[in-house]
Amino acid sequence: MTDHIIDPSIIEAENADRVDDLHADYESLGERLDRRGIDIDSIKAKVAEFNVAVPSWGVGTGGTRFARFPGLGEPRDIFDKIEDCAVIAQLTQATSTVSLHIPWDKADPNRLKQAASRFSLGFDAMNSNTFSDARGQLQSYKFGSLSSTDAGTRNQAIEHNLECIEIGKTIGSKALTVWIGDGSNFPGQTNFATQFEHYLDSMKAVYAELPDDWRIYTEHKMYEPAFYSTVVQDWGTNYIIAKELGEKAFCLVDLGHHAPNVNIEMIVSRLAQFGKLGGFHFNDSKYGDDDLDAGAIDPYRLFLVFNELVDAEARYKDFHPAHMLDQSHNVTDPIESLMLSASDVQRAYAQALLVDRKGLKDAQQSNDALAATQALRLAYRTDVEPILAMARLEKGGAIDLLGTYRAAGYRAKVAEIRPAVEGGSGGIV
Amino acid sequence: MTDHIIDPSIIEAENADRVDDLHADYESLGERLDRRGIDIDSIKAKVAEFNVAVPSWGVGTGGTRFARFPGLGEPRDIFDKIEDCAVIAQLTQATSTVSLHIPWDKADPNRLKQAASRFSLGFDAMNSNTFSDARGQLQSYKFGSLSSTDAGTRNQAIEHNLECIEIGKTIGSKALTVWIGDGSNFPGQTNFATQFEHYLDSMKAVYAELPDDWRIYTEHKMYEPAFYSTVVQDWGTNYIIAKELGEKAFCLVDLGHHAPNVNIEMIVSRLAQFGKLGGFHFNDSKYGDDDLDAGAIDPYRLFLVFNELVDAEARYKDFHPAHMLDQSHNVTDPIESLMLSASDVQRAYAQALLVDRKGLKDAQQSNDALAATQALRLAYRTDVEPILAMARLEKGGAIDLLGTYRAAGYRAKVAEIRPAVEGGSGGIV
Amino acid sequence: MTDHIIDPSIIEAENADRVDDLHADYESLGERLDRRGIDIDSIKAKVAEFNVAVPSWGVGTGGTRFARFPGLGEPRDIFDKIEDCAVIAQLTQATSTVSLHIPWDKADPNRLKQAASRFSLGFDAMNSNTFSDARGQLQSYKFGSLSSTDAGTRNQAIEHNLECIEIGKTIGSKALTVWIGDGSNFPGQTNFATQFEHYLDSMKAVYAELPDDWRIYTEHKMYEPAFYSTVVQDWGTNYIIAKELGEKAFCLVDLGHHAPNVNIEMIVSRLAQFGKLGGFHFNDSKYGDDDLDAGAIDPYRLFLVFNELVDAEARYKDFHPAHMLDQSHNVTDPIESLMLSASDVQRAYAQALLVDRKGLKDAQQSNDALAATQALRLAYRTDVEPILAMARLEKGGAIDLLGTYRAAGYRAKVAEIRPAVEGGSGGIV
Amino acid sequence: MTDHIIDPSIIEAENADRVDDLHADYESLGERLDRRGIDIDSIKAKVAEFNVAVPSWGVGTGGTRFARFPGLGEPRDIFDKIEDCAVIAQLTQATSTVSLHIPWDKADPNRLKQAASRFSLGFDAMNSNTFSDARGQLQSYKFGSLSSTDAGTRNQAIEHNLECIEIGKTIGSKALTVWIGDGSNFPGQTNFATQFEHYLDSMKAVYAELPDDWRIYTEHKMYEPAFYSTVVQDWGTNYIIAKELGEKAFCLVDLGHHAPNVNIEMIVSRLAQFGKLGGFHFNDSKYGDDDLDAGAIDPYRLFLVFNELVDAEARYKDFHPAHMLDQSHNVTDPIESLMLSASDVQRAYAQALLVDRKGLKDAQQSNDALAATQALRLAYRTDVEPILAMARLEKGGAIDLLGTYRAAGYRAKVAEIRPAVEGGSGGIV
């Protein structure tokens, strides 16, 4: 039996105020979709099955190199974080898994498993960290980790990844995500070819220990923390890595990790076509890796990504990319942001399901560019909120995520228990 | 025996005015390099061997969709163009080959060969054109060529490429460069996966007819003429193409075809490392595919590219990427721009040869980022003009490219023969 | 009485098929908006008043420097163009004005006026052209026009602008839009300060002749056709121009003329705040000045621009920026693109009208970032199509723009009368 | 008398090894410049007068939101920092001032003055900090400072700036630099117009207290730490601020604070032309505000900026923009980076002094784009190191900055005294 952090009676009361309107809206939307030959209930069913993982580090307040401004009631450890994740899962009914970060979330694996099980939460991909130095660490990653010029440093980074796999095995994870900050800040600082050779050799050592039913995800990023070059800088390099490693290796796409103006949905299509799309870190951005809430800046782009996923689902067998949020919440309550982001990712999926695939294909085949793009626009501008809300309602979640969460007063309650955190940084400019 | 367009006596007279200073400068530079353990003559010897191809279309005045402002004495046909290229080759002694564009340069292959031989010019890669409709063409490429949804259109584009190979065989070319404008202007206009399948199938048909001693170069470009998606949009897709086609297929890097901020020298390194760097279209740009003169905007970037090439030369066997200029000259005399661009490409090569490779490697190995980047900077800020000029002088070229060309009065002479061209465009906005 | 190009009975018949569904949808949307305290009819009334000008050049098929692929039945002259614009106005009921381009649209002003009046069309801003050379023009604009180093060239450009004003006076225009391509392709080619002085002096000469009830709009653009620097490169320079010229001078914002990642809605806010927002050239873009259909790439950005306009409307008196489409239609029927773009601009306006301004302000005041952004998102994700369609229906337009236009067979009809145009370009690379 | 941190005898010994070569190189360069009509000694004299301020925070090791990897012997407080700055000044003889950051450098002003005087150092602009919360601060700047919706917060930020002025008065500073992080992370989070009104009102309050012989510099930045909008986002807004405040208000240009592809030298020209160029924060960047060493990524851009400054110097009276380095040293010894950056800024200045201004102007006037850009290129590719080194030598600095610094063993010495700092961050992602 699942423990509930938010008293279900609060959710029920909040839902009760909204349920009649929801039924009216759902019915009215159903009629409009019916005219387009779409059965609203089957869309709802697919939406209800949709899951996106919540990153443990996402429930803390983020910051920049200039400052971090703490929020109220910040989680003190991974167990507090799991409780925050449980709130998100309870209200959204769309985030049944948590993704851990080692060493930040290091704890007795059995205790971790127990803590999550209490809320019926599972564990998504394990995330290793060789982009910062853990206390007491022998070798520093200042000049690189898996791609370091120093064999001892590389070995330490390999061992750390193997440890993440070990922890993951105990708690039921089935994947390892590897993102490194390795690169360089100056032309000439590193030799690109040597550095990449080191990286590949290290990753092969990690891959060799990957259980058969696991996947390894490598994540590319154009820049930051390295500001001249980055070892895994784009999907081209990422694709090469996945090919070199083997069939359990896949590419992870973080929406904020690309050069300006890049067509991300096309990268998604290419990786899917060549069997190497591992999954996503969802978020949104305007400038760099801004890590804003998914859909907050360019919701149409998010839809276009899901348009590719729905297309790929029908096109390729055994296609099941991982979905994870990866955001930094500097000015909002992280739980609120994560709930609404999970919902916005679901929204994009729901809208993509509404695309008239047959009409789209015909328009494409006859070079009717306008009709083709209108097929996407028609689906996109459909307000699918009633579908999302109904899916939540039927699973015990909240019709109104924000209203219900605020009504429950969760943040104020934990702020009483969890001590205020000192402000931050100043100096890392 | 080579015919000379510019009377050699003019070159000699111009050189005579400058030769004493050149000898003094060469000697003085030689001493400074000697202190760094570098033998100036061996650098000069390498520079003298360097060749970069001139594109036939580069000697005409370029333009934009808004207007084209003609220049004086523009070449009327490929034979005029070959003469212009001969001037560039005579003065720079660094551009002994011409790259043709079909159908723009279509003519009796034997006449082409003869015209070029007269000036001891050879032919570099053939360039096919399926990004515009040739007069009388059956199918339009408005909605794509090699990747079109229409089989007839694809076949026409394949046939055109095969024709380019045929012409090339006669005139002694050994490579085919394929750049297409295929893509889309609207989300949904094309299906990315289907379109790429069509492209790959078409290219396989072309590849099947490629002679054994030829190479095929595919060129990626982020955007333009397509403004939402482009089939070969980046090096990632380009690499996949080269892998799918086979061992005679290589990727061509045009310096202006990337997303803002992208680290191009790193792409060069990756392609070299995985055996797929075919060569370059050199030019420079500030915004998009501006096609400005090589080194005009960011000369250090050009140097960093050559730094990779010199590194790769020592690292990989059988490494010989093709060098070609690809520029659009809207406000300069194209011959002047091409001469100086050839020289600036050579300059970057010469500077890269000056890098203390041993010192650089040591600095990299010991994570001495500052010393490493200074090794590059020291080489880069060396004024190698005396080396370039001496290499030219010894081969019969001009010490002062611009001064000698202007003194020869070539442009004025051809302007008398070649009729003025009507201004242009207006309306293609 | 207004002449109709499309037989009204066709529109009626098409509308008849859709009117019942529209009423149902409008009613249902009205109920949902009513719950949010919004009266749908008052929104509809505002939407019905909204007008966006159509550019005469927009009804022709556009192209790039690589090629232009003609469409069927392209307009032969300005009178054909006016007919095409009349079709757009008839079906959308949102584009009652046409914006002319001189010299492309040069004709007897009285004939122009008559031709437009026949369809109850008016004339929006006049557009001068000094970015290309007109046939027979004395001085070339190859190296600049209003900012040329040559006084004769500057004067010619000034005279051309004065001529545009003269024509405009006759046909009832009230504004002159000045966009120039002046700039440079190479560092050093021009002196920035001198060039800008020339520009300002020239503009002051034009401004001196501007009628009292006219406005002059200057348009900034980052690059293209100049590829190193552009005289009016951004809103900062544009603002200085408007300040230097005087109170009839305003800045025009083209959504595609900015650097990557720039926050355009913020520029809109700044210009409005300092009394210098003249108006818009609406279009959309992914890379540069792609001139794609408004809302085709990033519809949320278009909404955010209108969110500023609705805010400014309430904040500043005498605020009435000009709305104009400025697009290039390379792969679609230009009439279809312009109709849907006019509708998408209207859509963004309608959505912006739905924002809960009071709630937004409260959230902003209390730093409730999430509630604030949700206020925008809620308005944006409302499908306002029933409002737009109802506004059209009530004014005699088409419920379904694309369906009705295609049913009317206009393109096929004009294709019979207007001869096919030869394909284009090839060579301006 | 000036105290010396590095024993002058070490410098002398190091110089002794290099002085003969330097004299030879200086003489040889002098001859080559003489041919171009340039007197090397007068260039050296100008270079010797050149000064660039060092930021106190620059001598500490920087970091990113992901991690900070400490260096050896990091300064513990402002007095250690002043000693590090004294080393830079001693060896480069080009950095006689230090720029302080309050509250990071807060200390008894008289002690500060004394500490600096000991090394003959002066104080450049004061830098206020309202982008992070100081310990014990009443109001948080989480949602803004000078532009906050809360009057108390704005007042606190105003008071902080006034305090900076007070400290500055005591220590002999003559300027206040104001950079804030205020902005928003989400569309709608703030009202752009209201926020900017608040900002202007606050700045007017600060400006009112600015001493008559002071300047106030405002600094624009596109993004970071705010990721959707920033109050002072570009030079357009910055220019408006300077105009609104008054004649003691000027714009500060940080080379890394612009949108991708922006032509920064043109902004420099515009601000100079309209009397509002206050000065610079020099650094270099490839992606965003990377804060890399000046000239490390695009040295030609740095030269082009100085080309504008030399042009402006001759054009406008009373033109004396402030020069300051502002960099973040994550992987290098900060002293080494700052020394070489100061030298690279000087280098760009020296190269700009070599431009043939008369020839450039003639080429510009006659639209000889190629000759114009070659005038810049010729100056730029001159290796002016002998001029810089000779200027240093004659003032008691080091011919070889890096070699001498390393020979002196300064870092090892302070590492013995200054305790190692704990690694950092982890979690602010």
From TrEMBL, chains A, B, C, D:
InterPro entries for the chain: L-rhamnose_isomerase, L_rhamnose_iso, Xyl_isomerase-like_sf
Keyword annotations of the record: Isomerase, Manganese, Metal-binding
Gene3D superfamilies (UniProt xref): Divalent-metal-dependent TIM barrel enzymes (3.20.20.150)
Superkingdom, natural source: Bacteria
One GO molecular-function entry: isomerase activity
Keyword Transport set for record: no
Protein name per UniProt: L-rhamnose catabolism isomerase
Naturally occurring in which organism (per UniProt): Devosia yakushimensis
Lineage of origin: Bacteria, Pseudomonadati, Pseudomonadota, Alphaproteobacteria, Hyphomicrobiales
